[in-house]
Amino acid sequence: MIGDQNFDINVDGSLVSLPLFSNQSIYTLPDDITRAVIVIHGQNRNADDYYNSIYSAASSTEELTETLVIAPQFLTTTDINFWELSNSVVFWSNTTSWTGGNLSNSTSDHPRDYDISSFSVMDSLVSYLLHNVPYLEKVIIVGNSAGGQFVNRYAAGSDQNGQGKIEYIISAPSHFLYLDENRLEDYTRPFVWITPDECSHYNDYRYGLYDLNNYMSFAGVDSIKARYSRRKIKYLIGGEDVYGTTDCSSMAQGDNRFLRSIIYYNYMQFIYGPGIRNNQKIAVVPDLAHNHDTMFNSDCGKYAIFGSGDCDQLEDPLPPDAQFLVNVNSGNYPLEVSFIDQSIDGTFSIEQLLWSMDSETVASNNSIQYTFDQPGSYDVELIAMDLIGMTDTVHYPSLILIDTLYGDVNWDASVTQSDAEMILDYSCGDNILDNLQQASGDVSTNGILSSFDAALIYKYLSGQINQLPYHGEGEQNASGLLYADQAISGDGQIVTIPVYLTSPDNVLSFDISMSYDPSQLSFGTINSSSLSDLGFNLKSSFQNGHVVVSGAGSLPVNNDILLFNLYFIVSYSESDQITLTSNNIVFNESNSMQEFSVSITDNLKVDKPIGPENFHIVSNYPNPFNASTLVKYILPASGKVQASIVDIRGQLVKSLFNDIQEAGEKAIRWNGFNDKGKKVPSGIYFFTIQNNAKRHIKKVTYVQ
Question: Of 78, 72, 69, which is closest to residue 121 (Cα–Cα)?
């Protein structure tokens, strides 16, 4: 059926007629009209059906006497061919054309002397009403399905303001006009917006703002975005409207009309922020599929169009109320906590819960269980998100308290040797531990994580102490002296530097740092079979001219011992002497004030000491030996001399001399027997000699 009235427009001297249905004569409007409702039909151009639906809804609200209902008819070429209408009647090539604001059509069978955008026609109709209805308070432009697409685009592109009197109702369109390149990644909250790559034309006009037609181009992208944010818009969608166009541009907006409407309303908040909800609202009509008559005559439809009745969704929708309980809030790790959702729906149903704890966010639809596997104090936050993007947040600081298991550095809920090894790696700079791991590993609770903490863990694992943390009085005190002979090596050769610990007292752990010139010493490594035999664990790192050696064990070292051997490749370059200097020596938790250095001299430039100027060991020969070895030394002044043989554990094997000696070059022979008169096993031993406060050590090898 063709509209029984025409709205006429003059376009460059040509008469343009738009058919329409109305409850009033369009050119003799009564003065008591306060509301004009312009309803846009769907793709079937059945304007009469849409008019009847709006008229019925108006009648049921007692708003009819003051309401002007207009149902314009945007005809297509098919309609003109069928109805044989006059040349003044405007028409468009198809539905896509008139819903997008394209120019009207002209054919050889139905020539027209004009062309005009469907949106320009709407501009003229709205302008006419604003200027000719003196008490007009509102102009409501409402469209369903294809008509909803028309209203969506027209609201974005039109410059009509009407002094704030114009409102728009967009009902159940198959797709929307997006205002940038973003689309929803998938229907999983919280929503993530991306640029899709599977549909090349997803953002062309009608779906987006690429390749705008003449009418929309005149507005421009920036104005379109700004105008749309100011529009008073209500979106209506049926709760069961689960079908719609399936082209890829539409599918990029969601799987069906219902989801596309919900997503678009959330997209408005993504583009403009939550404040857009002041101007634009949405209502879901339950149990409704895709029917304009049922939509317009629903409670929310009548409220949207006429402001009559009740529709909480469009009045002042309430956000959700986020609430939860926990079954336990403290204990040892791993602690499994049940977070019991107690959230209450607002006007719209809660669609997603976002739980935040332990620097992690967990999405769910209801209660969750979460395991805390590290000690600490944890804030917990719950965000309840409803269908249209409204949220509520509840935040509890320090809600979950997980006790510290001292010594457990790797968070496996037990204290093991691997925890001590991680501490040693950290102490020598070969491992990084976060603040929480450092606090858990600090079993001495002195605020500093060191190799001594590793030693206490070893003592705990061996049953020597019953619990961690441990506060043994005086346990942290230790002392000892480092000693190393001058090393001799040729250029490009591997040098071995034995480092000894003398006069040790209660040494459970040590951290020794030394510096050297990396251009002179390279490819550093370390070995210590002596300490390993005592149950010590040794870690080291060589970086940029620094070597750090950290060691710890469960039993203290109280006798002289070879701590470790350092190995380097030597490069003398311009110097014939290389020095390693210790800049930090710690035994247990006691800083040693001693100065310790090692010199390496080119074996081609070694000067033999002449005369008794220095107390030192000259040589031992043969070495290795079988029958006996002779150790020669220089004594610069008369005095008490103690000479002995110790094994690699620092245990006394043979006391060789303990008396006063005159100054000069001396010699002592050892035949491989111990103090009990028995042959010692083959192996490495150490000749130690002390004169006053100075001590020297020489390695000897006995072979049976």
Answer: 72
